Amino acid sequence: MTEEPVLVFDGDCGFCTTSVRFAKRRIGVRARVVPWQFADLRALGVTRERAEREVLWVEGGRVYGEAQAVARLLIAAGLPWSPLGFVLRIPPFRWVARGVYRLVAANRHRLPGGTPACALPSKPSNSGPASSPPTASPSTGSPTSDPTASNSTASDLADSDLTTSDPAFSDPAFSEHR
Questions:
Q1: From the centroid of its chain, how far is CA 117?
Q2: Closest CA to 72 of 84, 61, 174
């Protein structure tokens, strides 16, 4: 039995969450959809830093990111989307798709549905104050850098109509409609 692909996205980003909802509704995502904040990243072979910066498609032990994750999503969706996914994998379309993806990712906080929480994390600087060690978030049990930070996680996601088949979600908003 083949393991189901996993689409990992930033659940704190309104633009990302809206995009995933659109993909599920209009394209038909054939994968388990999980915000990185709730995913077992180690089991998926993904670092937190990578999950914070790009959408990821994990399939067959391989991790595809950025535009190639989108291409894999489109291929898995079948017709009429799969031809577009295959086109996005070949140069020069692959190069253009990567550039467009990076442009959108860098500006996702400015796009419709985006909020300041959507901004990509800045690279750590050595000149700033020392950061506190990660602690477990009371709502998710996931490590966070600052337990008092106002970044939204589970509460905002629970209010959305995003669904997933991950049994870790007990809220009805996260149950898969099959």
A1: 14
A2: 84
Distance CA 27, CA 24 (A): 6
In the chain, beta strands by DSSP E: 6-9, 32-35, 56-59, 62-65, 135-136, 143-144
Name the phi and psi angles at 13, rounded to 5: -95, 120
Q: What is the pLDDT along the chain (178 residues), one digit of tens a residue?
A: 458 999 999 998 888 999 999 999 999 889 999 999 999 999 999 999 999 999 999 999 999 999 999 999 999 999 999 999 999 999 999 999 999 999 999 988 888 776 666 666 655 444 333 333 343 433 344 443 333 333 333 334 333 344 333 333 333 333 333 3
* Beta bridge partner(s), residue 8: 34, 56
Instruction: Report the candidate in 45, 20, 27, 46 with the shortest Cα–Cα distance to residue 174.
Output: 20
| Residue partners of 166: CB distance under 8 A and separation at least 6 | 32, 34, 38, 174
- The whole-angstrom separation of Cα 164 and Cα 138 is 22
